[in-house]
Amino acid sequence: VLTDPVVPCGQILALHLSIPSIFFLRGLPCSFDLQATQCPDPPSYVPRTFTDNSDHMTFIQRVENFLLKSSESFLCNFAYLPFELLASDVLHRPVTMMELLSHGSIWLKRMDFVFEYPMPVMPNIVFIGGINCGKKK
User: Which Pfam families does the protein's record reference (predicted)?
Assistant: First the structure.
């Protein structure tokens, strides 16, 4: 199943049918993509989304980054609770969002490692950054 994991209905279907899933995404809120693939994601090194921080942060930026990462877990657990309930009903067992996303076979990320901040990734994450670029005139 080729799916976008922001709305994990495709992943629920893939788990129900016991078939592999390929995720096609730019990024997930709350770094779910990094957590599900067990990538290292230290808040002192990897900047959070929407902060405009680079990987070279000052101490104050690192503290801000840490506080934002701490608050993300509360907001995202609340936002993805309906999908966890739906997955638990369909799969007939308790399921968390991390468990749903951890079954992804390949993660096709629409970002370029060169232009984004460098981050550690797992072997099943493939960067396909040029897919959104238009032809040069």
Answer: UDPGT
Residue 135 lies in a domain: no
Structural domain count, the chain: 1
Rounded to the nearest 5°, which phi and psi values hold at 127?
A: -85, 125
The C-alpha atoms of residue 13 and residue 61 are separated, in whole angstroms, by 40
What range does the domain containing 94 cover?
2-127
Q: Is 75 helix (H, G, I), strand (E, B) or coil?
A: helix
Decide if 97 contacts 116 (C-beta within 8 A): no
* 133 within domain boundaries: no
Side-by-side strand order, sheet with 22-25: 2-3, 22-25, 106-109, 125-127
97 within domain boundaries? yes
137 located within any domain:
no
**45 Cβ neighbours under 8 A, 6+ residues apart:** 55
pTM for the full model? 0.78
